[in-house]
Amino acid sequence: MSHVKPLGHRVIIKRSESRKSTGGILLPDSSQEKPKIGDVIAVGPGEYNKQGVFEKPELKVGDRVLFSSYGGCEINSEQDLIVLHERDVLAVLER
After folding, report:
1. 5, 12 Cβ separation under 8 angstroms
2. Which domain holds residue 43?
3. Which end of the chain has fewer CB within 10 Å, C or N?
4. Element (H, E) at 15
5. What is the pLDDT of residue 17?
6. 1 lies in some domain
């Protein structure tokens, strides 16, 4: 996959790995819910608001985040990358 650069207030997130069941039950991938936690790997430059003031993004590369399951666009299923608008990120998680 070629390099992807997010625009505006968008970020690219690499989803965290799914956790395995502690009970030893194996579920097919299609029945497992994808994790809503990931690491920011790219951040857009920001954008101008309605008043004409340039706003920089709050997130930075390396942030571990919790994001909405309904936002975003999956761009690479092998690497589990997703493009989200910064407003779809719910929280930054401390490591």
Report:
1. no
2. 10-17+28-90
3. C
4. strand 10-15
5. 75
6. no
Sheet with 73-76: strands ordered across: 73-76, 81-85, 10-15, 37-43, 64-67, 89-93
How far apart (Å, rounded) are the C-alpha atoms in residues 23 and 9? 41
- Tell me the CATH number at 48: 2.30.33.40
Note whether 81 and 41 are within 8 A (CB). yes
Number of domains in the chain: 1
| DSSP structural state of residue 35 | P
pLDDT (0 to 100) of residue 55: 95
**3 falls within a domain:** no
Q: Report mean pLDDT in 10-residue bins for the chain, 95 residues.
A: 82 80 61 78 95 96 92 83 93 90
Task: Assess if residue 23 is contained within a domain.
Answer: no
